[in-house]
């Protein structure tokens, strides 16, 4: 007799199993803003990663016959004051900006989830000490803290990532601690404790998966904020340093020529604005898809 796989039945009715990935993608695509954000973000990523393969210039290649020229057929986005192609520098600089935003947001989220889980689950003196330290930490302006740390550690990619990571931790800790407090009194936690599950297992295998949705949304939204902070550090001479192409550094190099060569600021400025807009639209769509209260 042949083995026939049948779908499970409940009271004689066939139950279809919904693919969670396809279901989530469908909820995301219901939002027009999320579609627009995804389209812009994918375009920016492809522009930065694949674009250099289709242009004859490198990020630091100098054309002495075209110095500080506006957009033309040869240089679509113009050239800077050293004769470097702005489109090429925009592509290579986008890699730095995107990596800074994504890596910093992930590091901040990991640190915040760890500290927030400990504070929310253990409570008592542990929670009080952690949260009072977070209060002091959060009282310092985030951008000022980034500037101080970046100045102390020096310029460079890793130093910039560490400086930007520190500023995003307190907010994530507060949010996750609140989620953990609302979940730790539920029955599944009591059941895990009754069978002698370790505290680490309860925190990271039971509690955290049920509290991670707001963190995912916040992490997505913080990518855009972090990109702006990274550009701000480069703009004031910290962060990624020339001759490396980074959008904030490109703004810094072009600020002295805002009247005579406005394209030097317009090109990286528009790139930053579009990328941050796309990330914010994706974050809104992600929040709607993950939160059942916001679904139609």
What distance separates the N and C termini? Answer: 46 Å
Average the pLDDT over all residues and give the rounded result: 82
Strand order of the largest sheet: 1-2
* Helix and strand run: EEHHHHHHHHHHH
Our Rg estimate from Cα atoms comes to 24 Å
Tell me how many strands there are.
2
* Class from helix and strand fractions: mainly alpha
Count of DSSP H/I helices: 11
What distinguishing features does this structure have?
single chain, 296 residues, mainly alpha, two-stranded antiparallel ribbon, 11 helices, 68% helix, elongated, disordered N terminus
Structure description:
- The protein has 296 residues and is an all-alpha fold.
- The protein contains eleven helices and two strands; from the N terminus they run E-E-H-H-H-H-H-H-H-H-H-H-H.
- It has helices spanning 20-29, 32-49, 86-122, 124-139, 142-153, 157-167, 169-183, 187-194, 199-235, 247-254, 263-290, and strands at residues 9-10, 13-14.
- The chain has a two-stranded antiparallel ribbon with strand order 1-2.
- It is elongated, with a radius of gyration of 24 Å.
- Residues 1-7 have low confidence and may be disordered.
């Amino acid at each position: 007799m042949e083995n026939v796989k049948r779908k499970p039945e409940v009271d004689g009715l066939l139950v279809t199993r919904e693919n969670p990935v396809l279901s989530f993608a469908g909820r995301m695509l219901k939002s027009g803003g999320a579609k627009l954000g995804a389209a812009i973000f994918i375009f920016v990523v492809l522009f930065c990663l694949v674009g250099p393969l289709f242009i004859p210039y490198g990020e630091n290649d100098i054309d002495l016959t075209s110095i500080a020229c506006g957009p033309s057929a040869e240089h679509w986005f113009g050239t800077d004051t050293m004769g470097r192609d702005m489109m090429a520098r925009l592509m290579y600089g986008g890699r730095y900006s995107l990596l800074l935003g994504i890596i910093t947001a992930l590091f901040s989220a990991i640190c915040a989830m760890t500290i927030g889980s400990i504070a929310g689950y253990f409570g008592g003196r542990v929670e009080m000490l952690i949260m009072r330290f977070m209060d002091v930490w959060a009282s310092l302006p985030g951008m000022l803290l980034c500037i101080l740390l970046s100045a102390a550690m020096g310029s460079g990619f890793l130093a910039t990532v560490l400086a930007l990571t520190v500023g995003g931790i307190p907010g994530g800790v507060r949010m996750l601690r609140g989620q953990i407090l609302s979940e730790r009194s539920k029955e599944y936690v009591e059941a895990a404790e009754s069978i002698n599950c370790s505290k680490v297992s309860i925190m990271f295998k039971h509690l955290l998966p049920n509290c991670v949705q707001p963190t995912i949304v916040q992490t997505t939204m913080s990518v855009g904020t972090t990109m702006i902070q990274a550009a701000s550090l480069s703009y004031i001479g910290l962060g990624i340093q020339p001759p490396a192409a980074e959008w904030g550094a490109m703004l810094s190099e072009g600020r002295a020529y805002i009247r005579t060569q406005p394209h030097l600021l317009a090109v990286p400025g528009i790139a930053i604005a579009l990328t941050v807009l796309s990330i914010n639209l994706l974050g809104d769509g992600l929040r709607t898809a993950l939160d059942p209260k916001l679904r139609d």
